[in-house]
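Work Package 3 (structural annotation) set out to generate three-dimensional models for the target panel prioritized at the project kickoff. During this period the team completed the workflow that converts sequence records into discrete structure tokens, so that structures can be stored uniformly alongside our sequence database. As a representative example, we reproduce one entry of 543 residues exactly as it appears in the project archive.
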Amino acid sequence: MEAWDIIVIGDGPAALRASASAAQAGASTLMMSADSLGVGNSSAVDGIAAPLKESTTKSHRDDTIRAGGFLCDQDIVSHRVSQATRQVDLLERWGVVFRRDADGIPLVRKASGHTLPRLAGAGDSMVRGTQQVLEEQCMKHGVVRRGDQVPLELVHSGEQIHGVIALDMTTGLLNALQAKSVIIADGGYEGIWTGSNVGLGLDIAMKAGLAVRDLEFVAWAPLAVSGTNVVLPIGLLADGATLHHSNGTPIDVDLTADTTALATAIGSNSDAVLDARNMGESSVWWAQTFELVSQRLGINMKKQTVPIHPRVATTIGGIATDEHGRAVTGRWSRWFTGLYAAGDSACSGLHGAGLIAGNRLLDSMAGGAAAGEHAADHAGKTSHTGRAALEIALGAVEADLDFDMAGAEEGPVQRAGPLFAKLAEVMQASMGYSRDAQGLESALESLDALADSAGKLHLDDSGRLFNTNLLEALRLKAGIRLAKATVQSAMSRTESRGTHQRTDFTDQDDDQLHHTLIDIDGNLSTLAIRKGTSGTWVLSPSE
């Protein structure tokens, strides 16, 4: 049985940052991803928010809290934004080629949700550049990275982590991996709206008994190309692209509004188009985006407009964490010992009920570093435990997997693809810009029917070796469970706040100024908001 100090699940910026930080601190670190290495989960990251030209972090902090509907954990916000400049500096030192201004420092622009210029980036190479330099940091510090490793179960006793049971798709074998700590950082659950990948880490945490937080809140990508899965960077707007109706009439929208307000304004116009024909010299920073749209859609963005419609970009809810990335269970003073989360898998408290441009990457960088450093410190003070529990869990998971694959051959043929499409259809209809009790109740009925169908999935491949059909089935079942929890969380929040807008409860209710917790069985509870370090609000709704 392999034994590691730390196992990191994921391969995006948060996972890479956590792995490198842990290994740099001296912990033996295994990083595993259900996908091939390098795929990551950093799509639509436009840049990183940092107050590079401001004397204090106050404005950045206040913009974050307002966009979050005052549901942010304000001490977490203060801590994260105070680290923003440092994270930009590290990325630049490691090799990200930021755009620069006349003073020679990274260029910052005024972007969605910000009252001041604060978004630093490298055009459409930001995603690739960030992934590359963080991979290099992992190699430098000796992180062992493995792709095609599917996490199936967190093994624990009394809320203390012992390790992970994972399927190695390169060999077809199930493995029990012992670990002092596990960091979940394999992304959120936006795939239940888009019909794409769903992070398995959040699901196995819920199956381990952890209640997760604020699943009802999601963030929108305003510039998705209509009828496709292509999402254009919001940084195009900061560089001069404009929004119009198809007849050329400008759309009256505040381009500095938070992403939810921007998405709602664009979505209310069925004929919205993006005009990037007059971006001037800035267009060279988006050359790959122009080429992608040309190759995929046959649209020359230098001469033609692009039809756009908002879609879900990322999820805000997830595993509740403190400033160290520790998974919180039930209340702030309790830790699911050895379990951490970072990036889109975590609900760190930075975003609250809505996010602003650049804060997603900031949270991945700062949150990943915090989780990796604390996990390494924890590993130095504890020993490996639960070898017997891991062996028992391995046998149980093996039997369950064999049963599921055998059962898939019986009854009417059901395949994952159409069911994923149906799941996305249900979520888009009931959990879009607005929600109401009738739609949410109907969604639960539909999701129960989907769960029954998913139990009868047909797998074209009966083996485990590189069985992508099996991986898709596992993600579908996880997505349905997460979708049900999301709908139940939305039903419990009888107010409109941030990205959660209910047509039957249109007002914001400050009596519900708390986090929603839900477990795998649908049991709901709440978690208090962490205020400023002095115990008082840093910013109040009246300001």
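The chain has three domains: 2-218+314-388, 223-309, 398-506.
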